[in-house]
Amino acid sequence: MRYRLTFGEKVFDALNYIVLLIACAAVMLPFLYIIASSLSSPEALIRGEVTFWPKGLNLTNYQVVMENKVFWRSFGITLFIVVVGTAVNMFMTVVTAYPLAKQGLKGKNIILLLIVFTMIFQAPMIPTYLIVKNLHLLNTVWALIIPGAISAFNMFICLTFFRSLPEELFEAARVDGMKEFSILWRIAVPLSTPIMVTLILFYAVSHWNNYFSALLYINDFKQRPLQLYLYNLIAQFNMNEEMASLVESNVVLSPQGLQMATILVATVPILLVYPFIQKHFIKGALIGSIKE
What we know:
Radius of gyration: 24 Å
Order of helices and strands: HHHHHHHHHHHHHH
Distance between the termini: 41 Å
Number of helices: 14
């Protein structure tokens, strides 16, 4: 016999659908507006006629972005920070979490207490800036990588997952003569693929979206990452030399359209990565949250 929903269950489902639709709209509508503005004609943008559908199809904005050397230089810097920074983050997280997951480590509780302390009381901005300055990291990409080489929160997620792995497997490997470093990289890490992919996504998105650290530590125009470039383009309403030269050569452009096209081109790469790791991300997030 087919189960029939009660009136209360129907109301609950209806409210769930409404809330989910509102949440989807809140996420998608601004994105649709960006797409529509980037594809609309300057006249339509000036008159405020653009909502969620482009008016007067115009691809000049994307042509300008694709030919903008300053944009691609910032894009390359950000790509380097994401790849190298995420690799550094993962190495530091794994080599910190693995020994702390073991019962026999002396002083483990004190180390964990100190790590928790950094989560509650974070270093102030000025002392951190002075440290970065004294290490001669200002105006280098390393100022955006080394100070945040490890996240305490992500380390605890990784530690929790390592604790869930069977200790008997590691004991068997030790009996066979494997060293701890080999056990970590040949057994523990391959068995932790879901949580590793999850942490890689966390770190990569954090590096990709990080502009505040660049705002503090990067003053060199040629060392600006992508998010700082977007910040200057939007908040300060700046147009680089390539865009200005096109405006002077009788190419009709809208600053708003250029901004939207630049934002969209800068956002697409990170959006394309997520579908390929979604399965591992969801599994890793769930396991990391419920395992003890």
